[in-house]
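From: lab user (bench 3)
To: helpdesk
Subject: output format question, protein + beta-L-rhamnopyranose

Hello, I'm new to running complex predictions and I'm not sure whether the block I got back is the full result or only part of it. Here's what I submitted:
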Amino acid sequence: MSFRIDEEFVLRENRKSLAWLEEDYAHLGRQLKRRGVEIERLVERAIAFRVAVPSWGVGTGGTRFARFAGPGEPRSVFEKLDDCEAIQRLVRVTPGISLHIPWDEPDSPAELKSYAAARGLVFDGVNSNTFQDQPGQKLSYRFGSLSHADPAVRRQAVEHNLHCLELGVKLGARSHTVWIGDGGNFPGQVHFRRALERYLESLRAIYAALPDGFRMFIEHKLYEPAFYSTVLNDWGTSYYCTRELGEKAFSLVDLGHHAPNVNIEMIVARLIQLGKLAGFHFNDSKYGDDDLDAGSIKPFQLFLIFHELVDAELEQTPGFDPAYMLDQSHNVTDPVESLMASAVELVRAYVQAHLVDRAALGEAQDKNDAITALSLLKQAFTTDVGPILAMARHRAGGAIDPVAAYRASGYRRHKAEERPAATRQGAGIV
Ligand code: RM4
Ligand code: MN
Ligand code: MN
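Helpdesk reply: Thanks, we reran it on our side. This is the complete output you should expect:
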């Protein structure tokens, strides 16, 4: 029998801190009332928030230099779902799973789907992988995939994406995300315009096969694995491509895929305004695509992004329906802990963004009062909404303190016994 965190245990853990939480919650409720904010509304928003967990995130990641396996790593997609269930049980905002194909290629999609359903999980999206070669693969992606100079390689990469779509339908997913590693390491290696044309032609073939109700997301990235140029390098190029493709294509923003100091919240606003924001791969970074835990390095930036998102939500901007996912690589932490903490950070930024006094902000903007405008944002950002988040989790059946409850449950220790190291395989991004 595989160890699971049971609901009774979570309740017992919560009882230890419930009295303190209620006190803090009541105090915050009174404070917010003075500011004209009803705390219960915010708890409702926090309970309704959703962010998908990437199947590849529960395995220990690595860098370009090494990977240090952690104890009790999942050895199969089923064990990955077990870890996802543990996360969902404690944080209650992560029922959606995003699969990477072929990393998580199931023998039987129907079996995988019911295994997930039995754990309260659903498949939110599928991600294609044409950035590495798989055993037995006919043609290599060493020099690209969807934009490769050789039409046979492009066809193979398109076929893989079509396979992902078929699988997505069987699993009940609703979106397909395409990220490619195509690009060049040296000036002159790739003809910029021709490569983009070829990429777009491949995307058209994938788009034409989109199942009913599916949305297609394309993910731009400034550099890496190609170090000089990439084919889909920025949001502008991404926007152009999604417009060319049609109304079911959207531009996905991975927070780690921009040059340092780029104003990402403004990119988000632009994509919202243009009706092309797919959603996010949340993570954080100091230098490049570091894939660190969301909110760990630049929490204010995360807040400012949510400020734009909540603004569109409150205005009911037509077509605004962003899909949220975590896309992180956990090298030095327990992936379950990192994913839980990251999900919590997203809800925090989301709730804080709801605290912005938007009427006052509009007035300050009209009067060119920069100090007031900034202080309104800072007032929201510096409010400790912890009691709201904890109350929301508690009411939804999750943990008041997810990491503490997880540690107390002994989940990792149990998994280390159930999943012996001798048979352990690679489980994350290496
Ligand atoms: C890429 C990109 C993709 C992810 C891979 C593993 O940098 O973020 O979304 O699927 O990493
Ligand atoms: Mn990503
Ligand atoms: Mn990335």
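A quick orientation on your result: The two ends are 30 Å apart (CA to CA). Let us know if anything else is unclear.
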